[in-house]
Amino acid sequence: MSQNIEPQVSAFDIAIVVCTYNPDEKIFTRLLKAINQLHHDTPSRIECVIVDNNSQKPLSETGYVTKLLKRCKFQSKIIIEEKQGLTAARIAGVQNTSAPIIVFFDDDNEPLPTYLEELQNLFTKYPFVGIWGPGDISVDFLEPVPKAREAWMRGVFQEKHLSKIQYALTTTWTPAHPFGTGLSIRRLSIRKYLEAISNSQYSLSDRKGDSLASAGDTQVVLQAVLDGWAVGVSPDLQLVHIIPAHRTKIAYLRKLMYEVALSSKKALVELMPEEKQQVVILGRFPFIKKIIRHTFNTILRRNSFFSQIQLASYLGNVAASYLILEKKLPKWMSYFIKKNVYQKSRKD
């Protein structure tokens, strides 16, 4: 691990780290413009690193990116992380910065101008909190979504509008536990997590290429809790989560629900190995019984969209047990997952 993981005297107060892979120009431009509009009394004490996680066209050769970075009032640079995956990209961002506070923006985020100021106030006022996340997230769908699904989709994409600061010191997930969007950390609070990654204790790579697995955020947050740090969310941290049309389609959402369920269960067992004792393999006949019941309920409710979503999440949980216990998925189950999660021909 780089020396920049360890506490040190830094010329910076906050490091902005943006990890990206083949970003959408329209959406990424909104993020870069938002970063340029962030307020801070001393811009020279803010560093900004864009981690290019092997984009097909290097960001350093992408005109709109270099043009916007040249205008940036913060000290900014682009680095390349060849190892694919969000976890590897985030570690590269940590290693290539030195500030005691690190804020991660995804390439579909649009933080409001006060984000850095509020963040610094929170870390100063609450020295026992190691990780903060935004308590006010607005989802911006670039194309309209069906009204019957809109509220659910907003929840999936982490929309929230809290009225007060919340923090917690428990491994049981609560509304006070932040998700990955706009995640902000004390460098000190992730030392054990980074050591666990280095020692291969944690194996999840988080999003990698087209993969939608995303439990790495959970491990970052809960490892901090295990190390004695509280974690929290604040309505003073505000951002917009930009969602393009393809991410609202059933094919994408089935895959998302499946891979989140699959990775989340494994993430918890890696964090708390004692949980492995509770993991069991579901037999063929109980599985078939569950699927028959699901099919019957789908016919009664006449709601194919939500039935497909529920089934994908259930299949992710079932497959996770095989993964955790290092058992190979039966061929019949692999086929069923392929047909009900990854098949592209299903209508939205």
UniProtKB/TrEMBL annotation:
Keywords linked to the UniProt accession: Glycosyltransferase, Transferase
Alphabetical list of Gene3D superfamilies matching this protein: Spore Coat Polysaccharide Biosynthesis Protein SpsA, Chain A
Alphabetized InterPro entries for the sequence: Glyco_trans_2-like, Nucleotide-diphossugar_trans
Statement: the UniProt record of this protein carries the keyword Transmembrane helix: no
Single GO term (MF): glycosyltransferase activity
EC number of the protein: 2.4.1.-
Domain Glycosyltransferase 2-like: 16-183
EC category name: transferase
Entry protein name: Glycosyl transferase, group 2 family protein
Organism: Microscilla marina ATCC 23134
Phylogenetic placement of the source organism: Bacteria, Pseudomonadati, Bacteroidota, Cytophagia, Cytophagales
